[in-house]
Amino acid sequence: MLYKNTFGPKQPDDMLALTESPRSLPVPIAIGGPCSIESEEQMDRIFDAIGGHITHMRGGVFRQGTYPGAQGSWVGEPWPASAKFSPGWRMDLLKAYHVKSEEIGKPNVVEVLDLRDLDAIYPYAGVFQVGTRQAQHYALLEELGRQDKPVFLKRGTWQKLNELLGSIEYILKGGNTDVAVIERGNVSFMDHVRWDLSMSLIAKLKQLTNVPVIVDASHGTGDRSIVKPMTLAGVAAGADGFLCETHYDPDRSLSDGEQSIPLGEFVDIAESVARLRGAM
Ligand code: PEP
Ligand code: MN
Questions:
Q1: In terms of C-beta density within 10 A (0-12 exposed, 13-18 middle, 19 or more buried), how is residue 36 classed?
Q2: Ligand nearest to the CA of 113
Q3: Does ligand 1 come within 6 angstroms of the Cβ of 106?
Q4: For the whole model, what pTM was predicted?
Q5: N or C: which end of the chain has fewer CB within 10 A?
Q6: How far is CA 175 from CA 145, 152, 188, 211, in A?
Q7: Does ligand 1 have an atom closer than 6 angstroms to the CB of 184?
């Protein structure tokens, strides 16, 4: 069954849940921060610099490696003693991340890798992120649909429009209407990018749904030299916000440095996005 929240012509009745329910997501949405939370000092340097230009802080606390044992930012390190269900579990950093978000006054985005971690994460997360690899983990989506905090859903790298709409519905049908979709690119035959951002998907989502769309040109390119133009392209296509992985020294970032932009460029992109939206 297709739910009326995201499908159909843009008649007020079709979008009842999204227009009349209380929603806390600001538009435009600006998400900045490192791929991985590394330390309190790292957070201070990054968020003190970009805090005035973001609506949400990002930072990976739990990292999942493609192979068990290769845990992204914690490659080569044994799982910490505090590890629960998710690889790379760092409760100390999660708490520090939350303290920083309260200090800056911007909600922090936390990816939920494992449903069983949800209760432990809940007090320290402003927004729950569903990572691309979990985009069709329906039990997780349904559980997040019952939460009273916003959910940022990343499109699966394989997901077509219809499948993505289905994932959105799994969250919405639980009653949580604070949902935004992050377009972060898909697998393709193109080999000049890590994943390929779909501009037409952004435009189509805006045509069909009332769900805010965020363009993630960091994961969607894998190449920091084209993060700015692709972010602006996403906004021109209709995106309500952007996400950029950001680091004071991208080359020394624990993970995804090649697609992370320096702090000054984040500010430049945020200002350019505001100018572009003003001209649209
Ligand atoms: C992330 O944003 O931290 C992340 C892991 O991205 P994705 O799920 O899109 O790969
Ligand atoms: Mn990353």
A1: buried
A2: 1
A3: no
A4: 0.91
A5: N
A6: 6, 15, 34, 14
A7: yes
